[in-house]
Amino acid sequence: MNYKIAVVPGDGIGPEVIDQALRVLDRIGEKYNHNFEYTKVLAGGAAIDATGGCLPQETIDICKASDAVLLGAVGGWKWDTLPGDERPERALLGLRKELGLFANLRPAILFDELSEACPLKPEITAGGLDIVVVRELTGGIYFGEKGFKDTDLGPAAYDVEQYAEEEVRRIAIVAFDMAMKRNKKVTSVDKANVLESSRLWRRVVAEVAKDYPEVELNNLYVDNTAMQMILNPKQFDVIVTSNIFGDILSDEASQITGSIGMLPSASLAQGNFGMYEPVHGSAPDIAGQNKANPMATILSAAMMLRYTFGLSNEADAIEAAVKKVLADGYRTPDLMANGGKEMGTKEAGDLILAAL
Amino acid sequence: MNYKIAVVPGDGIGPEVIDQALRVLDRIGEKYNHNFEYTKVLAGGAAIDATGGCLPQETIDICKASDAVLLGAVGGWKWDTLPGDERPERALLGLRKELGLFANLRPAILFDELSEACPLKPEITAGGLDIVVVRELTGGIYFGEKGFKDTDLGPAAYDVEQYAEEEVRRIAIVAFDMAMKRNKKVTSVDKANVLESSRLWRRVVAEVAKDYPEVELNNLYVDNTAMQMILNPKQFDVIVTSNIFGDILSDEASQITGSIGMLPSASLAQGNFGMYEPVHGSAPDIAGQNKANPMATILSAAMMLRYTFGLSNEADAIEAAVKKVLADGYRTPDLMANGGKEMGTKEAGDLILAAL
Ligand SMILES: CC(C)[C@H](C(=O)O)[C@@H](O)C(=O)O
Ligand SMILES: CC(C)[C@H](C(=O)O)[C@@H](O)C(=O)O
User: Per UniProt, where does NAD(+) bind (chains A, B) (predicted)?
Assistant: First the structure.
């Protein structure tokens, strides 16, 4: 089979971690007889430097003509003086909207081998953590109307948080489908005691839940969830929430694992199309120094194989190879706090290839 | 001096913890020759049961005619089947708006004596934590226009996040004034890479900062802040943020202390008027069993003495008495995870009175 992948190396450590992910994909291709065809495209700071804008039309077109997108990271100090709406990160918002990527899956997993890196006390996380935050990604306050107006209190700026029933329904379905393949527990997070859009959210999620009688549904307020994530994170299986609450909670969840350099993510459209990227950012401070941890990007490639291409065995093989390298005691610099055999970005790729 | 205090015992454990706080205030009154005059008023579930509405006009009037308000907690299962906008918690929103309580101060302190209760590993919190979240409390998406509309995607609900420059300015001034009395560091939290209201927020905070050249100002995105709170909470001194972000982050911050039963809060209006309440909720599961920890409410009374009445020595005395009881090894049930001499709600009051 031939699989067309649009590749966005992006900025900072993006190109380095992408290189290693492509090496891993190539090896999988050889071993399992698939052909992965890459088209590299520009987005973020790299696109600003080359074209003046962070998301060229050509990039959008090539992504749309591909089966999936693999992205490294975008952004960096260099572009920090640009006005907010011209920054490299805007490319992410543009890609999400243009490609219809409404469902963002962010697993927060505590790897056994890295449990020492967890900032929470061991009694809280004993037995491991395996949460997936399902974040709505193309609606809410991110894409609602925004602007300025005059008020009784003088000049003001505003942003509209808004959800249509349909938007809530489709993300809820993603969450419940996912729960059926996992521990059959969905926590829907909102602020229904204050927000009208949250009350609609809660009502539609309850409707969807009726089609999944085996799945346990809990509703939690966002403030309480931010607490429970620290107090008792093991209660969570699948968390489903709005764009802005998901932004905050998925970052909090990733942090309680202590290993953000290990965490992949998927942003899915209706159908099988998806964009895959590590949770971490572009880390300009260590760019070009062979210090970046490529494992989150390699695991993102594994998610791509699983979710977009339906290649579960191949995805399993990559995940097993990553775990083997960790179990053998190798660590990239970000994971060295508790010692280990240090490896660079490229060596991590070498070791994972060897383990495949 | 005569001080008029409107007292809202509220629901669940509210009345019990309030009782102990009033005993402590009475002792302070005797010792330092002040007269605290209490008027008990209804709000929350207790008001719903008695009057049908969660916030009677009489309550508002009496609060307005007082020098300060001391509140226990509102809410409980009993009223959970009511529609969202008739719930007991709505009384809090009503009081905040009616009384103009725009500045919510939520200290998150790791008490030396309770450091074992902290869910974070000791190396992260070594040396203690002392953060205060300054949350804007009468604006933003809590009080913006909300409703329903038809969209391209069908029926939708919306809520408007909105900030006027003036609203941002007055809360920023509270934060910078507070920082001047503390470690001279303000972290302003927003989502300026996405929200127009956040860009206005960031601009106005920068303007206010010019009047405080000694204070260091950092701007952080809300998602990053949710991470930094776990990764490196010691970097924070004063955090200033919007109503909804403050709701989430202050709860997260309270949780990293591990002792939410100890945390007071103040909600201040222009001038000296304020409402004081514990951060914890009404805990209906332990109501009426002499199990509740009254220390957060007692410390809220101390904040009232300090901020509204300007009685710092008296506030110091209460805080010292609470610490003494902890140092002597006494613990309410919520703090017993690491052992100690168990005390009930009333015994906690007795011991604090004795320590005064
Ligand atoms: C860069 C920013 C616009 C983005 C977001 O808020 O969605 C990022 O924080 C993320 O979570 O992917
Ligand atoms: C009860 C609720 C409306 C309230 C809020 O969101 O402000 C509470 O969570 C709080 O933080 O005081």
Answer: 281-293
